[in-house]
Amino acid sequence: MGLGEARFHKEWLLPGAVAVGAAAAMTGDLVFGILPDEWAVVGWTSAAVLVGGLTFTVQRYYNKTRTVAAINTPSIDHLPPAHDLVARSVLSRALLQELADVRSPRGLLPNTPSEHQGQATVVVVHGAAGIGKTTLALHTAHRVKKNYPDARLYIDLRGDGDSPRTSAQALEWFLRSLGVAPTEIPRRTGDRASLFRSLTNPLRALIVLDNAYSTEQILPLIPSGPGCAVLITSRRALSVGNISRHRMVRVELPQEDEALTILAHYAGEERIAEDPAVALELVQFCGRLPLALRIVGARLRARPDLTLRHMRARLTSERSRLRELVYDNESLQACLLLSYRELTREAQQSLGLLGHLPAGRLTNWHVTASGLPEETALPVADELVETCMMQSVSGDDTGPQYSIHDLVRVFASAQYEQLPLDERRKLERRLIEAYKDAVLSLAASRAPELAAQEAVTPSDRLDGLPAAEWVALESDRLVWACERARELGLPRTASLIAESASYFLEDLNLTPETVETLLDHDQPERPRTMQALVRARASLRVAAHDPETALTLLSSTPADADEYSAARHKADLARVHLVNSDFPQARAHMTEAVHALRELNDVWHLLVSLEKLGEILRAQGRPAEAETCQREALDMARRFGDLRATARLRRSLAETLGYLRELTEAQEHLQAALADFRRLRDRRWEAATLYALGKIYRLQAKRDLALECYAHALRIFEPMGERLWVGRIHNARIRVLAGMGRLRRAQQEAERALSIFEELGHTLWYSHTLRDVGWLQIRTGSPEKAIPPLTKAIERTRQAGDAYAEAMARHLRGIAYRETNRFAEARQEFGRALEIYRTGRYTWTEAACAHDFIRALRAEGAHDEADRVESTLKTSNPLFERMAGRNGAVAIPDED
């Protein structure tokens, strides 16, 4: 029997029957003794109805009085005090907006949709443990409580504890708070909920349900009165049935500056001001989590002798960090442990193993790779997200992505260490094998022999990412997998991971020292693997401008072990010669490598080799051939779907187009490459592209833009310790500053560049800078002083086979000879420079050099010869007439 039916029997039917019976008993003898039978029946019936009506009236008055007595008590306020709300103004305003407008219990606010009639307002505040949900909710509740004058009810539903409150327990508490006597509280949960809704229907009441566990727990606690509002906090994004007037407010981590404000509030502004840099480190150790910040701040305030640096030292170790995040009755570890205990065994294992990995983004692949079958992995991922032990950070066509908060990761790793050793090793072996299979399948796309010689598992589940991007994101974890495989006695697996990773050297997001460690394996029984690792280590030495060590490494392995190794060995030798500025040898080896790789259809190594061959040809004064190589390589990179290789080849092609004066296309390629490198977060190549873009702006005489690019590139390269690039930027600034009339500053840049190149022993770039020093001497009216540095520059560039740089230096020495009236020598220099420019189809520089040659002929008095040369150039070079009047002694070399 329901509450309504029971109340009808108790309050109406039974009293009515008793009243009628009493009336019949009292009036029967009297009426039937006086009146005739017909009139007696009428009189008796009238008396019964009269008594029943009186009973109805009295009972109705009694019930109304009892209900009013239950709710017409003084205003009820059970809200507990809240912690200070700091740096959460945006969230607070959003919550206030939802709760500030209170509708009349008997009507609606103006313009309220009709479908909301008779519904309470429900707001669910959800987020991770320790993120400040309760503080936000209680702070807001206190701000709006004047809008709910009848009642402000609060209950902690203990959803984060071992024994959450039941709906029946919560309803009993609410009914007692509303004045219902214990004996009047129904026993069944549904009946309690009905009575609760009846009592709150005419009220303006705010109900705070803190730490809710589930939708089933809270649904009976939702009032129906339109003047009521319910504020729920939970670690889960709980639904609220079919209630249309409900809102979800997700509490995210505060921004870094907001987190610093929270720490300062609890520690004291003056403490933070003592050492703001260390305070920022404390914020980072706390992962910007408000509970952790409050604990650290409270400890600092309570201990004036505990400096920020001492606190930093205590939090530095991940193993002890959670033990430090305890103060008074607050403990982050205890808070997290309550959520952890709710998880299934599979979810605990998966969270622990993923927490044991280096930090980074996670996907469903990682959950599956942790040893769970796919049909189990996805529900486990959902469970971890629902309990806020893992956050969903984004989702696109490649699938959802997750992250684990740093402190949760530390906690999960500690819990994982408590699992039995055999269980941990079994889980780790599965994960290591998953990483080996994944990176091996990706490497097989770059090294076709791997697919033929190894059991390669298709990589169709790697989140749909390009190979290079996946490897870049997983770099630290590949190192973990390799090292852990060694520790678990899996040397073959470890070496396969390292070999596969060696084909992604440009993509590994690791320090050179870490890459060296990754590649350090001793597997003589696996010659293919060892040759790949040695070649990779040689490439690292080339990148570090250590060609001697690279050559030693390459000499330690047979060059013809197999046809793939032989072709790649030639390409590696070419790169060594390129770093040594030996362009003829570099070109010879790279040409052979390109031919062999094309025969083998080794597409990846072919496109990389074509890229380098283009750089060599450009330096040798053959930019048109360089352009052909680089365009072919760029098309291959696009077909490969490799963003980094595509961006790198755009940059390389743009530099060649700069030599060919195709400046508009060059600029387009560089801007596209810059955007791609920024997307890839590749700071080194971003800076290299800014340097190249600065050169294009310089050629266009857009000097301010050029200096801006150089300054930005320098800000990236200097902290990275890239001394060669820093020197090149100082060199590039010389001509820009001189063109702006800042000759003294240009001279200072030249001195800095010379110092760096001398320190590095880089003779070719030293000679390039000497060439610019010679030009500065010409520009300042001292052509005789220009000849010695220009002569040294010519000798070094000729030895290196850098034809274009040699032509530029000869062109300038020709100007110096002309300005000192050494016309025969000037003729010789201009003639040699023009020959190189024409061979390489450098149309623009040929025209500029021809003007200086003609000016020398006229100064010498050879006017007829000058006229013939001028007439020929007008016909053969379309740019010649556009440069009428150009004088290399004044103009900026190669600036349009």
From TrEMBL:
Superkingdom: Bacteria
Gene3D superfamilies associated with the record: Helical domain of apoptotic protease-activating factors, P-loop containing nucleotide triphosphate hydrolases, Tetratricopeptide repeat domain
InterPro entries named among the record's database cross-references: Apaf_helical, NB-ARC, P-loop_NTPase, TPR-like_helical_dom_sf, TPR_rpt
GO molecular function: ADP binding
Database matches in SUPFAM superfamilies: P-loop containing nucleoside triphosphate hydrolases (SSF52540), TPR-like (SSF48452)
Domain NB-ARC: 118-270
Protein name in the entry: Putative transcriptional regulator
